[in-house]
Amino acid sequence: MINPEKFEEKSDPIKKFNDFKIKLAANSLYLPNYKELKEAFSLLDSSDMEKYDMETALSHLFVGKDLKNTPFEIWTKEYVEQLSYYLIERLKALKENDPNTQNTVLEVGARDGRLSHFLKNITRKINSFKDSGLDFVATDNPEKYKKDWTILPNIPLEKIDYKDAIEKFKPTLVICSWMPENEDWTEFFRSKPFIKEYILVGNIDKYGDFEKTWGGREIVNLLGKAFLTTANKNIPNEVMDKIKKLPFYKDGFDLYSLKRLESYQVDHSTYFYTKPLDKSEWKYSYARSVSFRRRDIQ
Q: Is residue 197 assigned to a domain?
């Protein structure tokens, strides 16, 4: 992380880092904007790379000095706003197809429930959706998965397993951020006909089951660069033949890469770097946001 003791002569970046730290200390539910987060964690020059550790920095800022409690994803105002608009658009499209579509958006593996809390607050401020009845429910199971997050005051969190949560709330849309490593919950998502879409957030390489959840390296690389969705009719036949064998595709779902969200996404692997000569900015991150939609109701 940026160490003030090693950069005493560079006061401005350190001040931004410390100002940000003060805001978080004063308000555990402070939602930073993307620019603010970027400025607080930008590398000062190329030699800082060896000293910079986003995971350590975030741990010190959000949860003290226990690295095990480091948040995986740091929500930004712009990310939550873009996700809110996306969910509004999707629910509207689903209701046009089926007026009886439920308004429930279920977050599973929600940890402290922070994301659902932010989504609920922001969607209520959007004029076109104030009276929609959109309902966000945050759930997690601290008994099965290590309770390594801080319980936040006045933030609703249903403490149940993801399967029980889905059976109880019968959601139309599901959000899962940083699914446990080497586990695949998505097969269960797809088995429920009332789930029309699920959104996965996190590091594709490390969380979930790489093959079962995401489709494997070749498909992920292709869909992240050349094509943004498996519904693209320009995908070559030889590639489409491989896609058709993937679990999510065989279960009737198409993958959509949500680039509009990823532009504002920050996780504990993210690096921000501003080149000292031309002041150009560079961002490095493993984090992705991906939607899987039921194919018969796009």
A: yes
Contact 137, 103 (CB under 8 A): no
In 3D space, the residue among 100, 109, 80 whose CA is nearest the CA of residue 196 turns out to be 100
Amino acid at 84: S
Question: Running DSSP on this structure, what letter comes out for residue 69?
Answer: G
Percent of the chain exceeding pLDDT 70 equals: 73
Last residue of a domain, one of 43, 69, 95: 69
Whole-number pLDDT of residue 281: 67
E strands of the chain, at which residues? 42-43, 104-108, 135-140, 158-159, 173-177, 197-203, 253-257, 271-274, 281-284, 287-294
143-180 pLDDT per residue, tens: 765 555 566 777 889 999 999 999 999 999 999 998 88
| Parent domain of 258 | 77-267+286-297
Give CA–CA dist 50/6, Å, rounded: 12
* Six token digits for residue 228: 């943004």
On whether the CB atoms of residues 83 and 262 are closer than 8 A, the answer is: no
119 with 105: CB under 8 angstroms? yes
CB 85 within 8 A of CB 126: yes
Of 29, 50, 69, the domain-final residue: 69
Q: Coil, strand, or helix at residue 264? A: coil
